[in-house]
Amino acid sequence: MMCDTSGLALGDVLGQRKNNLFHPIYYASKTLNCAHKNSTVMNQELFIVLYGFENFRAYLLGTKVVMHTDYVALRYVMAKKEAKPRLFSGGCFFFKSLTLM
Q1: Is Nucleotidyltransferase one of the keywords (predicted)?
Q2: Could you give the C-alpha distances from 12 to 9, 82, 85, in angstroms and in order?
Q3: Neighbouring C-beta atoms of residue 39, cutoff 10 Å
């Protein structure tokens, strides 16, 4: 799954790797409301991850997920074990199999 956010909108792409090539399966995008536009970049990036898991849930259940993002701070936070429960306390997903690249 690939995700990115700008100041106005966010987008996710779900795909699969076959013969070392990425093949898109599903696209999802959303414009940000005023509350999300005024939030920090970290919160916007976390929101796009949760939004992607929410949209692609049927495809992702029971699989290992590799998340591609350009936000380096999110990779650092996800690597810290003590930060995950606090950051994702509002989400209903289990992030054990999530790998950020």
Answers
A1: yes
A2: 11, 26, 23
A3: 13
Distance CA 63, CA 81 (A): 21
At 10, the amino acid letter reads: L
pLDDT digits (tens, 9 = 90+) for 47-76: 888 888 888 988 888 888 888 888 777 777
Residue with tokens 């013969």: 19
The pTM for the full model equals: 0.71
Per the listing, tokens 């799954």 go with: 1
> Do the Cβ atoms of 77 and 83 come closer than 8 Å?
yes
Find the distance separating the first CA and the last CA of the chain, reported in whole Å: 10
Residue range 2-100 forms a domain whose CATH class is alpha beta
Comparing C-alpha atoms, which of 19, 66, 47 is closest to residue 28? Answer: 47
Strands 9-18 and 2-5: antiparallel
